[in-house]
């Protein structure tokens, strides 16, 4: 009997499907990851696993799991997994592209507007009983319409974000490893180098994956080049940003504000200086968190596990 390890609580309809494929060992907590020691024990005789981005898949895991055939990562990003090692151990790694693109772009726009219009601060002000009267500049924010928005990372999510912005009459710049002529034609996005993106954008929005090229891309020098009233949004991955540099940039008014859905360390430590910054809106990595999208992501993981166990092939394999 094949064993399938599932590192989080998932709805019964998906467990039922997995139970048709093998014996399922599930960690029945929605908000706490399976402890590493437990994962290393469970994975020993497993053929498949359905994991989240909280699990780090490294040498120790591959050494512990000689029967493993497939790792279905419930995320589009897979920087938590050593792909080269996976290939060397003949393990297929899959992710969940496409199904989360639109929801993540929607969260990106939500975060952008929330920061621009100080929605969170304004709500806190009301709930704390501070609202005395209407004020001419009470929580006066920044226009998105008419602004120049620079998108760093023009993959599916970057494009879906840009598509939404066309309704706001913005000028869209983008920087990416390669040019996307279709996005340029359809969305009117203009390709620029990284420096130009930083210098000319009123909003700088990071949608990029974490790679050796993008790690620490937003450092002291990058924030320095941004406009003093710029808003920085990150819906990509935390380590793309040097968070100390971001704190300094906010403290010294080198940029106006930021909205982060992703952090270098998740969950954020409660003594992290970003938490003291009024100008920072911080979310607990909820880019793809709609019920429909999360269902679709889990279904894709289940389909990938089924594909590998039954036919030796996955729908969305990411390693060679
Ligand atoms: C979430 O960040 C994902 O990669 O799906």
Description:
The protein has 320 residues and is an alpha/beta fold. The protein has two domains: 3-99 and 291-311, NAD(P)-binding Rossmann-like Domain (Rossmann fold, 3-Layer(aba) Sandwich), CATH 3.40.50.720; 101-282, NAD(P)-binding Rossmann-like Domain (Rossmann fold, 3-Layer(aba) Sandwich), CATH 3.40.50. The protein has twelve helices and twelve strands. It has helices spanning 12-19, 36-42, 59-64, 83-88, 101-116, 119-127, 156-165, 181-187, 194-200, 220-225, 243-251, 291-311; strands spanning 3-6, 23-26, 48-51, 70-73, 92-94, 148-152, 171-175, 190-191, 203-206, 231-234, 257-260, 280-282. α5 (101-116) crosses α7 (156-165). The longest helix is centred in the C-terminal third of the chain and has 21 residues, at 291-311. Bound molecules: glyoxylic acid (GLV). Keywords: Oxidoreductase. Residues 110-287 form the D-isomer specific 2-hydroxyacid dehydrogenase NAD-binding domain. Belongs to the D-isomer specific 2-hydroxyacid dehydrogenase family. InterPro entries: D-isomer_2-hydroxyacid_DH (IPR050223), D-isomer_2_OHA_DH_cat_dom (IPR006139), D-isomer_DH_CS (IPR029753), D-isomer_DH_NAD-bd (IPR006140), NAD(P)-bd_dom_sf (IPR036291).
């Amino acid at each position: 009997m094949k064993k399938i390890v599932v590192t989080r609580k998932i709805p019964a309809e998906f467990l039922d499907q997995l139970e048709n494929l093998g014996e399922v060992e599930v960690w029945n907590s929605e908000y706490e990851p399976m402890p590493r020691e437990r994962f290393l024990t469970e994975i020993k005789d497993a053929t498949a696993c359905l994991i989240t981005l909280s699990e780090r898949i490294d040498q120790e895991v591959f050494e512990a799991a000689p029967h493993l055939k497939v790792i279905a990562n419930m995320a589009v990003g897979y920087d938590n997994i050593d792909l080269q090692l996976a290939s060397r151990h003949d393990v297929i790694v899959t992710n969940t592209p496409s199904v989360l693109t639109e929801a993540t772009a929607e969260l990106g726009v939500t975060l952008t507007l929330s920061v621009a219009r100080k929605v969170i601060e304004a709500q806190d002000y009301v709930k704390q009983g501070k609202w005395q009267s209407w004020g001419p500049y009470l929580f006066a924010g920044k226009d998105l319409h008419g602004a120049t928005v620079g998108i760093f990372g023009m993959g599916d999510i970057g494009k879906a974000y840009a598509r939404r912005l066309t309704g706001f009459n913005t000028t869209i710049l983008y920087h990416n490893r390669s040019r996307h002529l279709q996005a340029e034609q359809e969305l009117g996005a203009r390709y620029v180098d990284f420096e130009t993106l930083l210098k000319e954008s009123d909003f700088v929005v990071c949608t990029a994956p974490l790679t050796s090229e993008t790690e620490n891309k937003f450092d002291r020098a990058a924030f320095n080049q941004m406009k003093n009233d710029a808003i920085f949004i990150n819906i990509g991955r935390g380590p793309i940003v040097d968070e100390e540099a971001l704190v300094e940039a906010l403290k010294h008014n080198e940029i106006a504000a930021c909205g982060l859905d992703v952090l270098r360390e998740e969950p954020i430590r409660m003594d992290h200086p970003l938490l003291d910054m009024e100008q920072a809106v911080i979310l607990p990595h909820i880019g793809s968190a709609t019920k429909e999208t999360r269902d679709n992501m889990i279904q894709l993981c289940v389909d990938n596990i089924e594909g590998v166990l039954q036919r030796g092939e996955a729908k969305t394999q990411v390693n060679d």
